[in-house]
Amino acid sequence: MAPVRDPRPIVISGPSGVGKGTLYGLLFQRHPDTFTLSVSHTTRGPRPGEQDGVHYHFVTKDEFLALKEKNGFVENAQFGDNFYGTSKQTIEEQNKKGKTVVLDIEVEGVKQIQAQKYPARYVFIAPPSEEELEKRLRGRGTEKEESIQKRLKQAKVELDYAKTGVHDITIVNDDLETAYKKLEDFIFNSPAQETPN
Ligand SMILES: Nc1ncnc2c1ncn2[C@@H]1O[C@H](COP(=O)(O)OP(=O)(O)OP(=O)(O)O)[C@@H](O)[C@H]1O
């Protein structure tokens, strides 16, 4: 397949459990050396087995805030006591290596990237129905009941935001292979944006 013509990162969002990871996992597997998942910065400590620069860029709170002050993040958020963010430098370094960067982020992050008009392409992954989303979340077996309820509530926020029409494409992940083909086609075949002179 021809290389990705559009150099902008692909921002993938959608409710938890809809299949984002499954879809871009297939993309990475079927197009080796083409894509990379953006490595976030975080102030939380590494968990056993997590490597700096691979799973996260582990930084101190001071380092994080300094980078934020310099407008170094395309998006950042605080969860509990910890800060998380995607740095512009991380995206640009991967771009220079010829990789298309994939970002998997929540609605607030999407809004931040859009607010600062950072060049990106926006893909929203939607569930065939709320019932099916709940089934997948439960079927994955990774979440406790409380977490499932929280994710289902947040799903409504994500779906409402998608209805405002801010994404370049919405893909319903019903049949996995069909959804995958739509994602692949969008990434490889949608015309590259003209760069203004
Ligand atoms: N098209 C599909 N049909 C049926 N099941 C699917 C489909 N796509 C993904 N799944 C299953 O749904 C569950 C959730 O998928 P996945 O973990 O990829 O979701 P996610 O959107 O990345 O979630 P999170 O945001 O929480 O990381 C998994 O068990 C996965 O195997």
Automatic annotation (TrEMBL):
Its EC number is 2.7.4.8. Residues 7-188 form the Guanylate kinase-like domain. The keyword Lyase does not apply. Pfam families: Guanylate_kin (PF00625). It comes from the Eukaryota. One of its GO terms (molecular function) is ATP binding. SUPFAM superfamilies: P-loop containing nucleoside triphosphate hydrolases (SSF52540). InterPro entries: GK/Ca_channel_bsu, Guanylate_kin-like_dom, Guanylate_kinase, Guanylate_kinase_CS, P-loop_NTPase. Keywords: ATP-binding, Hydrolase, Kinase, Nucleotide-binding, Transferase. GO terms for cellular component: cytosol. HAMAP family: Guanylate_kinase. Belongs to the guanylate kinase family. This is Guanylate kinase. It comes from Podospora australis.
